[in-house]
Amino acid sequence: MHNRVTVANVLRLQVVVDGAPDVLAGRDHLNSTVAWVHVADSTSVATGLDGGELLLSTGTAWPSRDADLERYLGLLLEAKISGMIVELSDEFPHIPALAIRLFDQAHTPLIVLRHPIQFVRVTSVVHRQIIAGQEAALDARATVHALFTEMSLRGSPLDFIVGELARELSSTVVLEDEDRRVIAFAGDDGSALIGWEKLSARISSEAAWGSSRTGRTADCDESAFLISPIAARGRRFGNLIVFPSRPHLAGRATVLEQGAIALALNRLTSDDPVEWTRQSERLLVEALISGRYRSQQSLLGQLDGMGFPTTGREFAALALAVRGAEPLKKWADFLNLRLKEAGVASIVAITDSMSGRRVITAIVSHDPQLVLSELWVRHLASTLNRGAGADDFSALLSVGQSVDSVDDLLRSLINVRDSHDFSPTMQVGRIDVWRATDRPIDYLLAALAQDGRARWFIDQTLGPLLRHDGAHGSDLISVLEACVRAPGNRSAAAKASLLSRSVFYQRIAVIENLLGVSLRDGSTLSALHTALTLYRTRGTVNPGQWDRLVTG
């Protein structure tokens, strides 16, 4: 603990300095904690020791025979005393070499005083310091207990609890599940998580555990890693790991245990066994989308910590926009399973698109030899389509271009999240599919969509149509889209519009009249396709509000 009294602290007291202290053994262990101070001039003192005591002695009661002295000092050292101070005198002028050797072997400080001092003054001062420290520690523990209890009662999310724990300990804190995958972390930019599975295994074998098997809090050195299991009702959910840090007034292990209890309660409040994984994947995808990571190295650490392979791999982004009554959680899990069956590692999360729609977003890591070809995408869409149950189900599956760095993945990720505004490149059952490699121009148009000049182009190209739809409640924009998607095949366009051919041709004539163009002209269709894509990418606007948007 931060307020503990050590042997070194005692040696700096003026009353001890007056005795000209000289360290004969255990110099490297003067930082040992002093639990209490005893005057020990009796050969039976060892029976009353509990560990951590600093003994004051005149040496006059020490046995003269080496065998007896070794037995006497051995009992003291077995009791785990923090050290011994011996006052030399005419009756006891020097320390036997045997004693120095025994204390050195036990890594326990042995100090002599060349001048006499008042032992009672030493015990009085040190005991006051110890009691004051214990009272301060109790207050600190109460504060920490209240902090984490309030978070539990408020239902604070796990990333907030981990963040507060890292702040309280001024250290890196990692929450991992039973498979050593990082669920949440704080106090580091993510770089410390690179190679996490191996690092976690090493920490587990070397670190001090926050709670011993008897349930007592371990008083651990601040240079050590600390681990506390997250468990409740006989179930183990993972581990909470604290990196080496400065001491804490309440004790690092105590703070760790309070954080572990709060996280266990957080876990128990959810009936979903994978809720922690969902949260961690959502936080990582949102951090990637929003650019909330310090460097590529820190992002690689976060991905590696979640078991997402990054070495010698290629990456791609996918999105699934589901329409219908079926819950998105079900489809997120279903997509994750299907991706693994398709030979790729994935992180799947439910996020908001730029237009505010809820979409299932995924990042995948795959072997460079595995090409996300049209056949691969069609097979994935087919398996998803077979899993559809509700009659009102339909979806858009978007697949971004494979890239060879996580930095380039961001561009692909942003585009697929909003690809529901792009025209599909294929259809598999009730699932429309958009592939970036089939429509590279869509990337450019998505980047230009929020430019003011794009709004001007949309108005110049589609304005009359939008104003007509707004005034008459018609849907000529949808008819135009069907025509543009199937250039030269008006029968297919009419079928896609769910209109008879005669009605479809009538509306085509109205569109051509309003726009003053021919829909058989290739350059005209190209311009209209560009304008429609920009219009949808900006976020679908009620045609009746178009004039207000343009003039505003």
From TrEMBL:
UniProt cross-references to Pfam families, sorted A to Z: HTH_30, PucR
PucR C-terminal helix-turn-helix domain: residues covered: 476-533
InterPro entries listed in its UniProt record: CdaR-like_regulators, PucR_C-HTH_dom, PucR_C-HTH_sf, PucR_dom
Positions of the Purine catabolism PurC-like domain: 10-130
Superkingdom of origin organism: Bacteria
Entry protein name: PucR family transcriptional regulator
Organism this protein belongs to: Candidatus Lumbricidiphila eiseniae
Organism taxonomic ancestry: Bacteria, Bacillati, Actinomycetota, Actinomycetes, Micrococcales
